[in-house]
Sequence to fold (136 residues):
Amino acid sequence: MQRLKKRNDYVKVARGARTPRRGFLLQSIRRPDAADNGAEAEARFGFTVTKKMGNAVVRNRIRRRLKEAVRLAGAAAADPERDFVLVGRRPALDMPFSDLVSDVVGAVRAAASVKTGPRGGKGAPKPAPSEEETGP
RNA sequence: CCAGUCGGUCGGACGACCGCGCGGACAACAGGCGAAAGCCCGUCCGGGAGGAAAGUCCGGGCUCCACGGAAACACGGUGCCGGGUAACGCCCGGCGAGGGCGACCUCAGGGAAAGUGCCACAGAGAUCGAACCGCCCCGGCAUGCCGGGGUAAGGGUGAAAAGGUGGUGUAAGAGACCACCGCGGCCCCGGCAACGGGACCGGCAUGGCAAACCCCACCGGGAGCAAGACCGAAUAGGGACGACGCGGGGGCAACCCCGGCCUGUUUCCGGGCCAGUCGUCCGGGUUGGUUGCAUGAGGCGUCCGGCAACGGCCGUCCCAGAUGAAUGGUCGUCGGGCGGGAAACCGCUCACAGAACCCGGCUUACAGACCGACUGGCCCU
RNA sequence: GCGGCCUUCGUCUAUCGGUUAGGACACUAGCCUUUCACGCUGGAGAGACGGGUUCGAUUCCCGUAGGCCGUA
Fold:
């Protein structure tokens, strides 16, 4: 698993598509240079756990569980031409690990299906506009 | 057995599968990079968070900078005595004060007759120290007041009221006098000292606050491993030395007057930097990488010295080194706690908390378990 | 890593060691108004936490918690 190590990379990914799940928020973006060296490309992952989540022990545990879930399942399912950042959330600390793994797989696959790179956040079209207010 | 005090140790155990980073070894074959050395990949082995790793409140090592020197000033810190230590605001032992029946605990614990300041309210009076209610004497009279004087025992106020208690004494009283206690001075004895004990003298004006200013004694240069050193694409042009020469004002000129900034402040003597041109020489160092970076005031054990902190001899061991940051994830068995149940068993749950240059302390957080010493009760022999 | 500051009603703030901890906005009750707003009168409401010094602490000292700023 390739890691993201530069602040610059994290900032770029943060502008990309967002996929919320129970234990984490997944951000992803297609690498601009991905097309060049296509065959050798590999998905890269970064992890963010903020201080609001808890003390150092809690933050370490969240990050390590997310990392392990990506290593076991997420990396294989990921689009190799994309960068991913998982922002840890509190439930990742003690939710069942199998659920966390399936969430990671699902989120990574869902991110790959998002077409546009930059901020497709509310891309899903609104459900039918119900009950238009009719004036008197 | 119950209640309590002090000191210390540990802080889940075992196993399976899949991983991470570090160190070491690797015969051959296979793969990638390279001209090569070699590196990557791979296989095996070893070890991989703490008692607080935390807070960053002190003290050091190490590294760089300033390293002129002196004096005074300023600033900050510490504060009974002795010892331990590399050092400390830490530790040990002792002393004093306070608390507890006791084991034991707590204390920023120098100086208030060097000076300045403050002591609200209440109270007559709050520190060059007094008389409100009282008590007593004298005088006046219509026996209860008025005037004068003496006094500080009692009352009242207050956190604190001119040593305290008892007696002698007196009109009433008072260190006025006496005994004991307290205070001060001086001497003797014990102790390295803080201090303790005793004798004599003084009848004894001389409250508290210095975590108020302050005085005294002692200590303190600044920054911090993102320190510092090395290797180094692209890009931009830097530094050192030498020569000419150089800041501001006036003047045609010779020349005259005045310098500015930095080195904690001031003073003295110093030092450095204050336009440019030319020449010679050296390169400089951003992303990144290597190093610093783990053998150290080191851990464990026997013995010796010391009441102890600690020190010494000898033996033995090598015990994390990341850098968007490894030390993990999942599962099983056992263990601990809580709840339910007659039981088998079932359910929930696992303290505080994560190294970042290293070390000595302090402080704070912490489920539970164990060991030792001691104190006060009760019972039995 | 280093070094500096702050914490007082719901909010913003004041305070020489002695107060009933003051003010403004907000809240609330009443008055005014046909009603609302404005205005007037009144009321409730605070020293982050734990120790110490002192007769007495929001103030002085120590520790803890939280927050902010500077610097590399």
